[in-house]
Amino acid sequence: MSTSAVKKHGTGFSNALNRGKVPGFARGGSVGGVQYKQNGGILSSMGSGLMEGILNALSSFDGIANMLSNVASMFSDMSISHTVQVDGTLNIPGFSQQAINNIVNTIGEQVVSQTEDKINVALDEFNRKLDQRAD
Questions:
Q1: What is the full per-residue pLDDT of the chain (135 aa) written as tens digits?
Q2: CA-CA distance, 25 to 13, in Å (whole number)?
Q3: pTM of this structure
Q4: Helix/strand/coil (H, E, C) string of the chain?
Q5: How many alpha carbons fall within 13 Å on the CB side of residue 40?
Q6: Which of 65, 93, 111, 126 is spaced 20 to 30 Å from 58 by Cα?
Q7: How many Cβ atoms from other residues are within 10 Å of residue 13's Cβ?
Q8: What count of other Cβ atoms lies within 10 Å of the Cβ of residue 9?
Q9: Helix 97-134 to helix 41-76 angle, to the nearest 10 degrees?
C-alpha cells in the first residue's frame, strides 16, 4: 500500500486491511460492489479530525514543559541568605571567651554548610524528576 493511501485512509484501517479484518477483503482478490467515497468519505474526515485533536492535546504539553523549565530555572538561580544575631555572651566554665567564640563560629559554619548541602540535594532531585518527565 502506498504512503499516500495510508495517509488518506489512516494506519488503523491499513493495518486492519492487511490483517484481513475489513469485511469483504478477508479472502483477497478483487472486490466488487464496493462504493468508494471521494477523499475517503466520512472515515477520512474522522481520521483527520482525530489526528488534529491529538496534535492539539500534545501541543498543550509544550506549554507545561516550558512552565516547568522556567520554575526549575528560578530555583536554580535562587540565593537564600540568613543573618542570625545573638546579643549577649555565652559563659562556659573552663573555656576562654575566645574558645567559646570559636566553638559558636564552627557550629554556625556547619549549620550553614549542611543546610546549603540539603538545599542543593533537594534541587538536584527536583531537576532530575523534571528531566525524567520531559523524557
A1: 688 887 887 787 777 777 777 665 555 555 555 555 555 555 555 556 667 777 777 777 777 777 777 777 777 766 777 776 767 777 778 888 888 888 888 988 888 888 888 888 888 888 888 888 776
A2: 12
A3: 0.31
A4: CCHHHHHHHCHHHHHHHHCCCCCCCCCCCCCCCCCCCHHHHHHHHHHHHHHHHHHHHHHHHHHHHHHHHHHHHHHHCCCCCCCCCCCCCCCCCCCCHHHHHHHHHHHHHHHHHHHHHHHHHHHHHHHHHHHHHHC
A5: 15
A6: 126
A7: 19
A8: 17
A9: 170
At 82, which amino acid appears?
H
Query: Which grid coordinates belong to 107?
Result: 557550629
C-alpha grid cell, residue 121 = 540535594
